[in-house]
Amino acid sequence: MLKNASGPMALRSLIAAVTLSTAAVTALAQAVDPSVPKWARPVIPWPTVTTSVKQAINSNLADASVKASMDALQADEVRTLQETITLSEIAAPPFGEEKRAQAYLEMLKQSGLSDVSMDKEGNVIGVRKGSGKGPSVVVDAHLDTVFPATTDLKVREKDGKYFGPGITDDTRALAVMLSWVRALKSANVKTVGDLIFVGSVGEEGNGDLRGMRAFFKEHTNIDAMLGLEATPVGVVSPLNTGSIRYEVKYSAPGGHSYGAFGEVPSAIHAMGRAIAMIADINATKVPRTTYNVGIVDGGRSVNTISPDATMEVDMRSDGVKELKAIEKKILAMIEKSVVLENKRFGGQALTVSIKKIGERPGGLTPSAHPLIQAALGSMRALGQKELMTVGLSTNAGIPLSLNIPTIIMGPGGKFEGFHALTEAMDPKDGYKGSQIALLTALSLVGVEGVSKPVIAIRNAK
Ligand SMILES: [Zn+2]
């Protein structure tokens, strides 16, 4: 992605904007919507929306069928909320999404899609064909949540807010896709390009984007992706933060803490050396780069020189080069910790095995891309103040790493408590965000007899 002619320029302008005005723009963002989370770091300036993109959006909005589909989203709010609750109460932990996927497949059919299937990985895919002359655009929301199957998922309402683990991330978006399917059908909207709805598996944690990886391996004809994630209305994320995760296992002979002292190396001591070195790394602030030793485990008893120690390390960066650099640094520190601990006792008794347990690629859709313009233009056309963020880590990483233009938008509604048991959604005026995202999607694929698709068909088909 960054090798594109416009890529590095766009990234630099994004970075410059972040550096100069993060505080001011964040304040603005929070004035607009207090639910904008801290990680949502808006970026300006926005690209100019070209006349042709504006025209496509305006023609779509003036069209009776498109207008009817927009109205249908508002009229569908109660059902959308009910379906959000229904889906939210079906457990979908990583690697355990089948039940929710099965239910979602049926709901897509009931909403009016006939071409619905589940692929080998477990993704639910519903195709809404266009006239055949336009681009193929994926609309994605993920089925999985971070919560184990044993979690109490009963949704509870209080003061208009709906509390339920996973209800925002990303269940609301799944329900919004169902309402789109119904709205497009009831309003008889005929698109030029295909809309491919995907309820994907494996977005969270150790799922490691397995759903998206499998989908894009199978479908090489996709021209763009619009991912729906629980972000505030007005937010567009054209950038995916890359991440790499390792499990690091130290092994040593072990021994009595008194009897074998000074004779054998300790797995825990070696790991401690590594953690101390890692904790002192100065990561780049721009692009934002982070690291974390998140899990440590090991040891037998307080008086045993430990034969084993394990840690899990996470590193992330908004920059592709910076991610590679910090990975190299941390791996070198782990190797060094082994050398130091062995050196202290002589020999090679201590060993380490390093296993990559996660890799989420990063990437960027250049800010001048018609996909970003369509999102921005749709917001403006519907009276929404725009914000832009960087720093998300989502399914977008896979298509972005394949140079497929991708953005993340919100499905409407307000959200809080991501990944916490107190996760909650306020659906008030949620249809507005849903309308903006649908108008964006329609502009991408074009409406038969009304507007041409604003994005091109990629050559890579
Ligand atoms: Zn999510």
Descriptive overview:
The protein is an alpha+beta fold and 461 residues long. It has 2 domains: 3-241 and 362-445, Aminopeptidase (3-Layer(aba) Sandwich), CATH 3.40.630; 242-360, Alpha-Beta Plaits (2-Layer Sandwich). 38% of the residues lie in helices and 21% in strands. It has helices at 7-32, 51-62, 64-75, 77-88, 98-110, 167-186, 210-218, 267-279, 320-345, 370-381, 397-401, 430-445; strands at 115-118, 124-128, 136-142, 156-158, 161-163, 194-200, 224-228, 235-237, 239-240, 242-251, 255-256, 289-298, 304-305, 308-317, 351-360, 363-364, 387-388, 406-409, 414-416, 424-426. The strands form 5 sheets. It has an 8-stranded mixed β-sheet. A 4-stranded antiparallel β-sheet has the order 4-5-20-19, covered by helices on one side. Strands 12-14-10-15 form a 4-stranded antiparallel β-sheet, covered by helices on one side. Helix 3 packs across helix 6 (167-186) and helix 8 (267-279) runs antiparallel to helix 9. The model is unreliable at 1-32 (pLDDT under 50). Residues 142, 169-170, 203, 229 line the site of zinc ion.
